[in-house]
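Let us work through a complete example step by step.
Step 1: write down the sequence.
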Amino acid sequence: MPVITKFLYKSKKWLLLVLLLGIVTITIVAINTKLQIWSEMTRLWTLVEDKEKAKFILNFIGTLATIIGGIVVFLNLLNAQKNTRIAQTNASLAEARLITDRFSKAVEQLGHERLEIRLGGIYTFEWIARDAQDLRDREAVIKVLITYIRECTSFVKRPTSSLEGEARKVHLQQIVLQKNQKPETPPKPPTDVQAALDVIKRLLNMYEKEDIPPIDFKEVDIRGANLEYARLTRADFRNSKLEYVNFRNAHLEEADLTGSNLSDANLVGANLSNAEMMNVTLVKARFYRSNLNGTNFYNANLEEANLTEANLQGATLTKANLTGASLSGAKSPVVERAILCRTTMPDNTVENRDCL
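Step 2: predict the structure and record it as C-alpha cells.
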C-alpha cells in the first residue's frame, strides 16, 4: 500500500508538470502566431497606397465615433430613466401628502357650524375621490360621507363624534320643525345631508356594477331625500326612516331594508330584485313598473301601495298586508308566481294558497 500511494503521489506531480508545460507551450505558440500575423499585416499595410490608407483611417475613426456615440446615448438613456423614476416617486409622494392634507382639512370642515363650510368640505371630498388614482381613496371618501350622514341623521343615540357638532344640532332642529309641518308637506333632509347623498351617488356611478362597495345606512333618517337613479346594490337600510324618499329607477338589488319605513316612497321603475323587505312599512308606496323579482315582503305593510305593472315573480308575500293596494297589470301569471300565505289581498280577503 505505501508503494502504491507513493507511486500515485509521484504520478500527480508528473501530471501537474505536464499540464504546466502544455500551457506554456500553447502560450508560446499563440504569441508566435500573433507576432507572425502582426508582421504579415504590417507588410501588407506597407503595400497599400497612401490614399487608401487615409480612407481606411477615416472609416475606422467614423466607426469608432459611432460606437462611442451609441454608448454615450445608451448611458444617457439609462440616466434619464433613473431621473424619471425619481421624479415619478417624488410626484407620487407629493400627491399623497396633498391628498392627506386636503382630506384632513375636509374632515374639519364637516364639523363646522356654518353650512357653506360644511358644503365646501363635502365637495372637497368629491374632488379628492375623483382625482385619486387608488380606488381605496375613493372608498375612504364614501365611507367618511356615509359616516357623516349617519351621525347627523341617526335617530338612535350614539357616542359623540368629531363629525357631529353643530351639523347634528341643525338637523335635529329641522326634524322638530318637520313634526310641526302639515301632514301633506313632504319632509326634506338638510341641505348638507342631501349634498353628501348626491356626492355618494355620483361617486358610485364611477364603479362597475360588480365593484360597487356596500353602503351602510342603518338607522338613518333621510326622509324626503332624492336618490333617483342611485346605484345602491346590497345597501344596508335596516330600521331606517325613508318616508317620501325618491328611489325612482334606483338600483336596490339585494338591498336590506328590513324594519324600515318607506311610506309614500317613490320606487317607480326601481330594481329591488332579491331585496330584503321583511317587516317594512310601505303604505302608499309607488312600485309602478318596478322589478320585485324574488323580493321578500314577509309581514310587510303594503296598504294602498301602487304595484301597477310591477314584476312580482318569485316575490314572497307571506303575511303581507295588501289592503287597498293596486295590482292592475300585476295579475296572472305574475301574481300567481308570487308566494302567498296568510296574505291579505287588496279586497281584504286572506290568501293561503302557498301555505304548507
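Step 3: interpret the result. The helical segments are 2-47, 50-110, 115-131, 135-153, 166-179, 191-204.
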